[in-house]
Structure formats: structure tokens, C-alpha cells
């Protein structure tokens, strides 16, 4: 099986950078396109004038975008070190499995590579498994990197 377009969601964690490295290795082997995304919560009050009256909330969104861009820049350097140029994009929308699934569909990818923190027991019960949620939301193959 060959992969033409690989997507990696990046959140700035070390495990997401490990996923980028693995995806870059696969992309290099298959001469695939590599896309890195970082999800940022969409403003739920887009049309509400009063929403941005709070400088704190406006600053939050500015910082969220800056953090996403910084994580993508660092991730693209990991891909470059593996010999692959990556397309990077901050995706405004839901920061959940639906957001990854929608981005994967929109980008027309045929493989999602993502990291898993490997939570177990009580932590998994409380925090859930983002990778598992993505597996349940998409028909696209998902490769889970654990370290």
C-alpha cells in the first residue's frame, strides 16, 4: 500500500513531534505529501460585538494562534531533518476528534499519523484518548505513535 498524502495533528507536545518524525519517514519512503496541522478553537461568538470587548479573550486567541504557529514551525523542522518538506496550516475549528477528521477529509489525506500519550487507568477514564476518538470518527487509516 502506498500513501499519497499524510496528515499529522500537532499540539506542541513531544509525542506529536515523534509522530511528525515517523510521518516524515513514511512520506520520504513513499514520496508522499506531508501536511501538519494545529487546531485552534473557533470563536463561538463570531458575530457577537460584545465578545471582543474583553481584551483578555482577544489576547487568548492571539496567543493560541501564536502557539499553534510556533508548534508547526518546530514540527516542520523535524520533518525537514528527515528530508521532507511539510505543508503547515493552523486550522480554525473544533479541537477534538471531529476537528481532525474534518481536516483530514478537507485535505484529502489517505493516512493520519498522530501521537498518543498512552494514558492508562484513571487518567484515561478522566481525560479520554484523543487517538481513540479519532479512530472512531474517521474511515481514514490512523497510525498511532506512542513514543
Major sheet details: 5 strands, parallel
Q: Give the termini separation.
A: 24 Å
Radius of gyration over C-alpha positions, nearest whole angstrom:
16 Å
Uncertain ranges: 122-127
**Overall geometric form:** globular
The proportion of strand residues reads 15-25%
Number of helices: 5
Mean pLDDT: 86
Strand order of the largest sheet: 3-2-1-4-5
Give the oligomeric state. Answer: single chain
CATH class: Alpha Beta
The named CATH superfamily: HUPs
State the helicity in percent bands.
40-55%
Helix-strand pattern: EHEHEHEHHE
The CATH level-2 architecture is identified as: 3-Layer(aba) Sandwich
Per the CATH scheme, the topology name is: Rossmann fold
Family: Belongs to the universal stress protein A family.
Organism: Acinetobacter faecalis
Main location: cytoplasm
Subcellular location: Cytoplasm
How would you describe this protein?
This protein is α/β, with parallel strands linked by helices and 147 residues long. The chain has a single domain (5-145), classed as 3-Layer(aba) Sandwich (Rossmann fold), CATH 3.40.50.620. It is 48% helix and 21% strand. Strands 3-2-1-4-5 form a five-stranded parallel β-sheet, sandwiched between helices. Helix 3 (97-107) packs across helix 5 (130-137). It starts with a strand and ends with a strand. Residues 122-127 have low confidence and may be disordered.
Amino acid at each position: 500500500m502506498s500513501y499519497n498524502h499524510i496528515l499529522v495533528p500537532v499540539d506542541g507536545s513531544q509525542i506529536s513531534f515523534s509522530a511528525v518524525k515517523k510521518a516524515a519517514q513514511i512520506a520520504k519512503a513513499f514520496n508522499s505529501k506531508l501536511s501538519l496541522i494545529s487546531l485552534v478553537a473557533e470563536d463561538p461568538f463570531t458575530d457577537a460585538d460584545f465578545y471582543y470587548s474583553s481584551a483578555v479573550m482577544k489576547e487568548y486567541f492571539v496567543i493560541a494562534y501564536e502557539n499553534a504557529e510556533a508548534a508547526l514551525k518546530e514540527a516542520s523542522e523535524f520533518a525537514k531533518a528527515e528530508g521532507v518538506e511539510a505543508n503547515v496550516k493552523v486550522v480554525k475549528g473544533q479541537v477534538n476528534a471531529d476537528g481532525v477528521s474534518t481536516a483530514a477529509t478537507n485535505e484529502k489525506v489517505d493516512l493520519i499519523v498522530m501521537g498518543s500519550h498512552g494514558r492508562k487507568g484513571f487518567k484515561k477514564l478522566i481525560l479520554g484518548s484523543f487517538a481513540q476518538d479519532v479512530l472512531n470518527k474517521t474511515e481514514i487509516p490512523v497510525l498511532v505513535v506512542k513514543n
